[in-house]
Design brief:
Strand content: 5-15%
Strand order of the largest sheet: 1-2
Order of helices and strands: HEHE
Low-confidence stretches: none
Largest sheet: 2 strands, parallel
């Protein structure tokens, strides 16, 4: 999915990319924040390694459990 997404972005031309990581709210808040940052960093490393982009054009951040798209009750 990442590869397909990046190919589409490159075909359209883009100036920068921000990758965000998220978690559910189960577990410790600080752990979830760290986990979300590691997830985003992992994707950013993959993108930089495989798509010949300048590091200054790819940013990443983790939000932990702070920006849910659904409650934990939603699969």
């Amino acid at each position: 999915q990442i590869d397909e997404f990046l190919r589409r972005l490159q075909a359209r031309g883009f100036h920068s990319l921000t990758i965000t990581g998220h978690t559910d709210s189960i577990g410790d808040e600080l752990y979830n924040l760290d986990l979300s940052e590691r997830r985003a960093a992992s994707v950013a490393r993959y993108v930089l390694k495989n798509y010949n982009l300048k590091a200054s054009k790819v940013k990443h951040t983790g939000y932990g459990e702070n920006r849910p798209i659904a409650s934990n009750a939603n699969y």
